[in-house]
Amino acid sequence: MGDSSTSSTSSISQGTFKTTKPSHFRAKINFQNIEIVVRKLHQNTINLSVKNLKKKQTKNTQLSEKMAARNQTKDLKCATHLLNDKFRNMTEEKKAIVRDLGFGGLMHIPPLRVDHQLLRELAKNFKLGENKLRTGYGSFHITPKKIGDALGINATGDLFPEKVDYKKLSDEDKIIYRRFQGKTLKSLTDEMMEIGVGNEEERLMFKRIFILYIQMAFLLPTTINKISPVHLVPIFEMEGIEERNWGGHVLTFMIRGITDYQEKKKKAINGCLFALMIIYFHLSKKKGKNRVERPPKPWIAN
């Protein structure tokens, strides 16, 4: 992950295409159930329209929605309900620790049901090499800072190493490594909620468990329900961890997932596409507004 600077967004004019219709990638979000209707136009352009679901639907429609929801986690994750529920039921002592770690902004994430077709379309329209999201409102340069602004996480400082060098770990750290290796999200979640934080040793263990949990559930999600080696890296960098470049950490992992999706034609998309969605909605909504009218950070809270 190199450049974390923010470049200005470039707009797409109506005259760009001579013989084809312009690309329209527009959506509005409502923190209720949403329905995405996707229509592919010429030259792979996309027109998205988002409509509120009607309160009353036929039995056939309800059945098809349940079947679609059951299949969603097969291609990507977006565990907003899980996050919202666990933060709501977490003790105040644990919430204070989460804020000290620099993740207080994530407590604003609503229990939003996100249609995964929208997330896939965002991944398709992400320009690799340039880190730009191409939309009907223009091209938005996606940077660690924008990820940080969207989610309320730090986006400056050093990036984490790519992997843990097990041989260089101390004997104590090797025990910690083996303790978490192969853990599932469910076992981590249960342990995070059950562990006490009455002394320094317990608080440190809670921090490690939470960092693993928040990566697996949201920041660096995969479709494999076990801890990945990349998730383990931060728990061995605990000193000053709140000052590390979490925005860059999230973006680097997301780019890898989108690369596999676009170039290797993988069905699964690893990475926090939810952050990409929040950036898209925020930047498209603020176009034409002056600085005073723009929503405050984190964008997820607005």
From TrEMBL:
It comes from the Eukaryota. This is Aminotransferase-like plant mobile domain-containing protein.
